[in-house]
Amino acid sequence: MGFDQTRTDMSVKQEHALLVGVCLPDRPWNESDPLGELRGLAETAGAVVVGELTQRRHQIQLGTYLGSGKVRELAEMAEAKEADVILFDNELTPSQGKTLEAETKCKVLDRSELILDIFATRARTAESRLQVELAQLEYSLPRLKRMWTHLSRVKAGIGVRGPGETQLEEDRRLVNHRIRDLKDKLRVVQGRKVREVASRSTEPTVSLVGYTNAGKSTLMNALTDAGVLSENKLFSTLDTRTRQWRMHDGRNILLSDTVGFIRDLPHHLVASFKSTLEEARQSRLLLHVVDASNPLAEEQIRAVESVLAELDCSEKPTLLVFNKVDQLPDISFLQALQSKHPYSVAVSAFKKLGVAELNQAVAARLDADLFHVHLEAEASNGKLLAWLKHHAREVTEQYKDDKVIVTCQVDEEVLGQAARLGATRLHGDDAILNMNPLPDIGALEELGNS
Length: 450
Ligand SMILES: Nc1nc2c(ncn2[C@@H]2O[C@H](COP(=O)(O)OP(=O)(O)OP(=O)(O)O)[C@@H](O)[C@H]2O)c(=O)[nH]1
Ligand SMILES: [Mg+2]
Hints:
41% of the residues lie in helices and 19% in strands. The longest helix is centred in the middle third of the chain and has 32 residues. Helix 1 packs parallel to helix 4, helix 4 runs antiparallel to helix 5 and helix 5 packs antiparallel against helix 6. The protein is of the alpha/beta class. The structure holds guanosine-5'-triphosphate (GTP) and magnesium ion. The site of magnesium ion has 6 residues, from helix 7. Magnesium ion (MG) binds next to helix 7.
């Protein structure tokens, strides 16, 4: 794992972390390295892993998650290895966290808290900072155990705190106040973002989505000259970047790189990242990038799909892109994925393999979304006609009295814009009645043959 210059806490003592994972019947579990992902998260957060502990269980122990013997083992391990923090791969309830802290005398964080921490240290733009703070506060509201001293600046002046109120009630009120404040601010940012994305030029947008570390940013760099940061760390990208992608057939589209997803992404975080993902929500096509060399690729595909569903994107046209085919441990990995997902493309973003095939597949998917339409307008509407010639495909015009009927292929955006410029779409019989039918090449050939 490379040195990350964006982190500023190099002078701070790195925390020693113990990793714990419980294998339950319904959890994805990578036999060869069950805590690999958690280790990646811990290292991304700047910790040094000093020990690991796993347990296989049919169901969790309600109070402590782990069985009592394992809890003792964990406490001894924490003491022997001088651990500062215990990181749980599983989601803990507030009371499980508290009990485990008491039993091990060590700070305990679960996966969601760890992910939130990473997002907090990596958020760069004002918008992502607001989003992360909101997600952290919502997550910790039911877990309030400490004083929220940093919130004192948002206290609404003298008189907030009534006599006899407990510190906890006070904390809760401050947190709720700050949550409302952040939501207001985000609403303004999000409104602006939706309008901005929607009003953008009619070039179709294609968004890269996928599991963290799948290679989205590397692919973005391979297809455009974006020069975005890509590295072997989880959550390298937190903000959406959009660049022009000039495809092999000459057309220009906008390509967006987005934040990566992860299994069990904290729900609050998904909700609060909606505006960062606005680009993906409004794009014509999603390129779902998968690390095909990862043994858990199939689970990762499902995790991404479930986040997409939370973002109301499950209906979006999606093309699966199997990446990292240069480092497959075995070609049968890819074959198994491809036989399950036949409409996919295999690439290596790193070695720039499969780029031509990807171009073709994207072009085909974008074209498949084109409508064949008949539009009617005033013959004098030169602005509309000039605009259509530029933005629609296969444009033909037929003039009739003071009207013109344009036959062309358009996508939804172009259709919307044409309507705003004064075109009316003719449907069914209208379209046929108003048209002098164009010669049908196929039919003519058949006639010629008979
Ligand atoms: N061998 C190999 N490595 C790759 C390939 N594509 C990406 N990588 C490596 O995988 C790591 C992650 O790549 P990124 O492009 O940062 O991944 P990402 O999906 O943008 O990750 P996040 O922004 O963290 O969600 C980097 O170390 C890349 O060099 C590939 O085709 N082959
Ligand atoms: Mg990235």
